[in-house]
Amino acid sequence: MRASKLLSTSEHERVAAAIAAAEFKTSAEVVVCISSRSGRYDRGEDLIGVVFALACVAGAWLAFQGAHDESWGVSLNLGLWAILGIFAAGFSLGAAVATFFPALSLFFSSRAEMRSNVHDRARIAFQDLGVRGTRAATGVLIYVSLLERTVSVVGDQAITDAIEQKTWDELRNTVIAGLGEGKASEGLCNAIEQAGVALAEHMPGSHDDTDELGNHLRIID
């Protein structure tokens, strides 16, 4: 699913309101980003292409090898070049199908690889979206990658020093549970509320706080 199709307009507004409510309690800046995918998984696409190619060769062999056309008197034995051609065509078709349906590639990818890709993309988004560089260096990014169904939370150094990883793990699990139940906006709002409570404990709000980054969702299709 594309990130831009995950939530309705009203759900976008609901998440933005949850961010505003969380930031009202803390001097930290919370940014939520939803990305369609974080990795290419070329190896998975190639493996699907190989499997498809082998299936095509096997099917052609069973269908034609040794067959005899009585009307033409032709024996349809497959030669080396025919087999190579079938393999190449099958590989190209299988890889194209895997590219069009990227979830197929995940069957040949480990969870560790997916988590690594999501974390790397989250670190890049943390920079590109301006979350690093807030006035008090208290920006935190909740990055959701839909293809991998994985969440990564990235915070500035002050946040990393103050809040245990366990807190972010619980927040991540809240978002993933919401996605799994088909309640993405509810999961996000609950996770944002959790973030607000944890951040307020260590970085309470003050009268001169300004909203530096805005509360709207960031979308990467």
> Secondary-structure element sequence?
HEHEEHHEEHHHE
CATH class of the largest domain equals Alpha Beta
Kindly report the average pLDDT value. 87
CATH topology of the largest domain: Diaminopimelate Epimerase, Chain A, domain 1
- Ends apart, CA distance between termini: 9 Å
Radius of gyration: 25 Å
Unreliable stretches: 70-74
**In total, how many beta strands?**
6
The overall number of domains is 2
**Major sheet: size, sense and barrel closure?**
4 strands, mixed
Range of strand content: 5-15%
Structural class: alpha/beta
The helix fraction, in percent, is: 40-55%
Question: So, CATH architecture of the largest domain?
Answer: Roll
Query: What is the global morphology?
Result: elongated
Total number of helical segments? Answer: 7
Can you list the strand order of the major beta sheet?
Answer: 5-4-1-6
Q: What's the short story on this structure?
A:
With 221 residues, the chain is an alpha/beta fold. It is built from seven helices and six strands. The longest helix has 23 residues, at 42-64.
Task: Give an overview of the whole structure.
By secondary structure, the chain is of the alpha/beta class. The chain folds into two domains: 3-39 and 110-220, Diaminopimelate Epimerase, Chain A, domain 1 (Roll); 42-108. It is 54% helix and 13% strand. The protein has helices at 9-24, 42-64, 80-100, 111-128, 157-162, 165-180, 184-202, and strands at 29-35, 67-69, 74-76, 139-145, 150-155, 218-220. The strands form two sheets. The protein has a four-stranded mixed sheet with strand order 5-4-1-6, with helices on both faces. A two-stranded antiparallel ribbon has the order 2-3. A hairpin with a 4-residue loop joins strand 2 (67-69) and strand 3 (74-76). The longest helix is centred in the N-terminal third of the chain and has 23 residues, at 42-64. The chain is elongated. Residues 70-74 have low confidence and may be disordered.
